[in-house]
Design brief:
heterodimer, A: 228 residues, Urease accessory protein UreF, B: 271 residues, 7-stranded mixed beta sheet, 2 helices, 18 strands, globular, UreD (chain B), chaperone (chain B), nickel cation binding (chain B), Urease accessory protein UreD (chain B), cytoplasm (chain B)
Chain lengths: 228, 271
């Protein structure tokens, strides 16, 4: 077994080529509307994105996926993939998630091969399942013996980190401001991780309605630098 | 579990016309006799005989459309949910759609009053060629202190299955907190609405044209429209009042009826 700290550092590196680099998940709509225009406004958006979208959707899915693997419940794992795909009602974001999920699965499998990832990749190739980064992350973390809390927290951090890097390019924002945000949001990441642990399966995939509308509207923006 | 109200209906196609071959209701739910606003397809109105939903109420609705059957289900007035000090109100709906059937399920808005908790679980099972038109509106009731969001929470989970697989899942959970009216949540609006259509003929061009039409109406609302994982689209609207939600939903519905179903426009509302 490799040291558990090092893979975690590797996954949360914003240069980790997951493909998230090309996606704003609807934030670009707000940038074009100038609702998000500087550190202050982006910070508010980032906190809400964490507290709602990541807590109820991606983060909760990551926790539940980790639990299905612990319970050796493969069916449950793949059901989560189905729920994530079916509940993302903006086409562009749905396809973005799928693309990132596929790419991350192949990359993670090359780096840390495991049975579940091999199966996940096969299912995606056969078009029976779709792919989502939250599940790929849960799979690789579980395989490496990383506990649930740490896995979820790292997943939240790495997702926020790539959003911050995208904001630095997209708004644009200073690199230092971007890094400051990653400090300021740390307490909230802890709180959100605790919150995710308390939620139930019934809470999964609760939409952030305004964000979903922004993701849908992004599909019709004329000039854009992100794919979603 | 004690049911406050239950209703069941089955629609079957006989010759050119769909008839209701089974119709049952008990408790606080009633159904009107079908009216043929569309000469081939019945419209039925669900009626709540009490003043509204109260603490611990449980309602079930079952709709079954047999092969080729076409039916529209709506309500006679708004659904009001009052405070629920002990247990939330639960409404469970299941819709079974056999091959090539058509179900339009478009109830009036839900109004959630102060301290109301409401959960709605809707499961739709669709066979090949089945066509669904579904709309929903979640609105806040008047509160003494004038707050826009005085209900405790509203949860709506709509799941659509095809061939045993979950293909669409719309989960709206509105729980007023300091961020509900803001960014990414209600965006300064108080009323949420949606219209979903599942139909083989929906493509990007149709979605685009509906979007353009709605934009041209120039209403004070924020909305998005996008293609579903199956052939169809989802329209989500945030607005300041029910009228705006209805205008946008009805406009899109008119387009669906005339261009996808090749049917005349119908108006269920009497006001």
């Amino acid at each position: 077994m490799t040291d558990r700290l090092l893979p975690l550092l590797q996954f949360s590196d914003s240069n980790f080529p997951s493909g998230a680099f090309s996606h704003s998940f609807g934030l670009e709509t707000y940038i074009q509307e100038e609702v998000i225009k500087d550190k202050q406004t982006f910070s508010e958006a980032l906190f809400i994105y964490l507290e709602k979208q990541l807590v109820y959707v991606d983060g909760l899915a990551c926790r539940l996926a980790w639990e299905t693997l612990e319970a050796e419940n493969e069916t449950g794992f793949f059901q989560l993939d189905e729920v994530l795909f079916a509940s993302c009602l903006s086409k562009e974001t749905r396809l973005g998630n799928q693309r990132i999920g596929e790419r991350m699965a192949r990359l993670c499998y090359d780096l840390y091969p495991s049975f579940i990832l091999e199966k996940y990749i096969k299912e995606m190739k056969a078009k029976r399942y779709y792919g989502h980064s939250a599940l790929v992350f849960a799979a690789v973390a579980f395989h490496l013996g990383i506990d649930k809390q740490t896995a979820v927290k790292t997943y939240l951090f790495s997702t926020l980190n790539s959003l911050v890097q995208n904001a630095v390019r997209g708004i644009p924002l200073g690199q230092t401001d971007g890094q400051k945000l990653l400090v300021e949001i740390q307490t909230e990441i802890e709180k959100s991780t605790d919150e995710i642990m308390k939620l139930s399966e019934e809470d999964l995939a609760a939409v952030s309605p305004g964000l979903e509308v922004a993701q849908m509207q992004h599909e019709r923006l004329h000039v854009r630098i992100f794919m979603s | 579990m004690n049911l406050t109200g239950a209703m069941e209906l089955k629609a079957e196609k006989k010759a050119e016309r769909t008839i209701l071959s089974h119709c049952y209701y008990e408790g606080a739910l009633k159904l009107t006799r079908p009216v043929y606003l569309d000469e081939h397809a019945p419209s039925v109105y669900m009626i709540h005989v009490g003043g509204g939903y109260v603490d611990g109420d449980v309602y079930t609705t079952k709709i079954h459309a047999a092969e080729e059957a076409e039916v529209s289900v709506t309500t006679q007035s708004h659904t009001k949910v009052y405070k629920t000090p002990k247990e939330p109100v639960v409404q469970k709906t299941s819709i079974h759609m056999e091959e090539n059937s058509l179900v339009e399920y478009m109830p009036d808005p839900l109004i959630a009053y102060e301290k109301a908790r409401f959960v709605q679980e809707t499961d739709v099972y669709m066979e090949e060629g089945a066509r669904l038109i579904y709309s929903d509106m979640m609105t806040p009731g008047w509160a003494e202190d004038g707050r826009a969001f005085s209900y405790d929470w509203i949860r709506s989970r709509l799941k659509i299955y095809r061939n045993g697989r979950l293909v669409v899942f719309d989960h709206l959970f509105l729980e007023p907190d300091e961020s509900i009216s803001g960014l990414m949540q209600m965006e300064g609006y108080s009323h949420a609405g949606m219209l979903m259509v599942i139909h083989e003929k929906v493509d990007e061009a149709f979605i685009e044209s509906v979007c353009d039409l709605l934009e041209k109406m120039n209403l004070e609302a924020r909305f998005g429209i996008s293609e579903l994982p199956v052939k169809g689209f989802m329209l989500r609207i945030l607005a300041q009042n029910t009228k705006t939600l209805e205008e946008l939903i009805y406009k899109a519905h008119d387009e669906i009826r005339s261009r996808l179903l090749q049917k005349d426009i119908i108006r269920w509302r009497k006001y």
